[in-house]
Structure formats: C-alpha cells, structure tokens
C-alpha cells in the first residue's frame, strides 16, 4: 500500500509539473506568434517537452488549453474584482465600478490580444456562450442594476462588453493602430454617456 501511495503521489506531481510546463510553453508561443492559428498542439507539446497525449489528458482539447491559460493570466484581475479595493472591488460605487471593470477587461485583452482572439474565435461556437463571457456579463449586469433609473441592465451589459470584444480590440490596435490610451479614453467616454442615459433616454427610445 505504501508503494502504491508513493507512486500515486509521484504521478500527481508529474501531472502538475507537466501542466505547468504546458501552460508556460503555450504562454510563450501565443505571445510570440503572428496569428493564433499558427500555434498547434504539436508545437506546444514540443516546446513543453511532453507528448500530445499529455496535453489532451490535462486539458481535453485546444480550446481547453486556451481557457486554462486565459484563466491563469486573468487571476490577478479576478482577485481584485472579488476582494480588492475600489474602483474594481465590491465596495466601489456602481457608477465608478462599471467603467473600472470595463477598463480592466480592455487592458487585459490589449495585453493578451492573441490569446483572447484565439479563445473567442475557437471552435466552441459563439463567444457569448463562453464561461468567461458569462461571468463578466453577470457581474456587469449585477452592478448596473444598482444604478437607479438605468434601463435594461441585461442588454446594457452586453452592449458595453461588445466594445471590448477581442476581434474589435485586435482590429483597432492592430489594423487601425489606435494607441492604447486613446482606446481606454474612448471606452470610458462611451461608458459614461451610456450610464448617463436615465429614464428620459429610455422613455424616448420607447416612443
């Protein structure tokens, strides 16, 4: 039994080590690649020094690997959102927290352009069905509901997140070469104008 337990512990350590090696290799490859599609599972396996089967056992498929890498990079922001100070943390005033959350999403996607694009364009279908999208939408909707007079928090959350889609970020930052700070300022202005749309705006839209 002792030998079996030691073997199991070694196996778990090996699996954890392999997982870290795969994530580190994928992180490096996606950072340096010209296009997300240029990176294959075989490339990641070779860079990590493991077999392709190891990756499939640990992550399921390419989309699973992308999600895992995305979550690792996102962890500092998630911690700030869940327990950090204002303006990202839960004690922030809703009108301050909404633009701070969107700015965090935009900056994350600017810093992780190829990874975010690969994940949103992956074979999982619509990006709106992705788990991370659902979390951001749910959080934004909950904060928007705390703003008096703001109509339709569900749609508003979708509309605001649309401005941070990876394909739009890639287009603006890559093809149009919009500077980072200009993009942040544009998103902040768009958010402020949308949040200023109280009952009169909603009433006019319904006429």
TrEMBL record:
Q: InterPro entries this protein is in?
A: Homeodomain-like_sf, HTH-type_TetR-like_transc_reg, HTH_TetR
**Entry-linked Pfam families:** TetR_N (PF00440)
Keywords in alphabetical order: DNA-binding
Query: Which ranges carry the HTH tetR-type domain?
Result: 16-77
Q: Is DNA-binding among this UniProt entry's keywords?
A: yes
Gene Ontology MF terms in the entry: DNA-binding transcription factor activity; transcription cis-regulatory region binding
Which ranges of the sequence are annotated as binding DNA? 40-59
Record's keyword annotation contains Nucleotide-binding: no
Gene3D superfamilies tied to this protein: Tetracycline Repressor, domain 2
Any idea what this protein is called? TetR family transcriptional regulator
User: What is the native source organism of this protein?
Assistant: Streptomyces griseofuscus
């Amino acid at each position: 039994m002792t030998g079996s337990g030691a073997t199991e512990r070694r196996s778990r350590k090996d699996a954890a080590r392999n997982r870290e090696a795969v994530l580190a290799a994928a992180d490096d490859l996606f950072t340096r690649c010209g296009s997300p599609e240029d990176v294959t599972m075989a490339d990641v396996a070779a860079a990590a020094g493991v077999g392709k089967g190891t990756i499939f056992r640990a992550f399921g498929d390419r989309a699973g690997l992308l999600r895992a890498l995305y979550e690792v990079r996102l962890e500092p922001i998630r911690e700030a959102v869940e327990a950090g100070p204002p303006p990202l943390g839960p004690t922030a005033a809703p009108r301050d927290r909404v633009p701070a959350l969107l700015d965090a999403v935009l900056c994350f996607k600017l810093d992780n352009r190829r990874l975010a694009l690969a994940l949103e364009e992956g074979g999982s279908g619509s990006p709106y069905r992705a788990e991370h999208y659902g979390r951001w939408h749910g959080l934004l909707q909950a904060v928007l509901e705390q703003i008096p007079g703001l109509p339709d928090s569900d749609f508003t959350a979708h509309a605001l997140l649309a401005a941070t889609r990876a394909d739009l970020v890639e287009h603006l930052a890559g093809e149009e070469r919009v500077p980072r700070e200009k993009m942040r300022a544009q998103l902040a202005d768009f958010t402020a104008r949308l949040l200023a749309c109280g009952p009169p705006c909603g009433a006019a839209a319904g006429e």
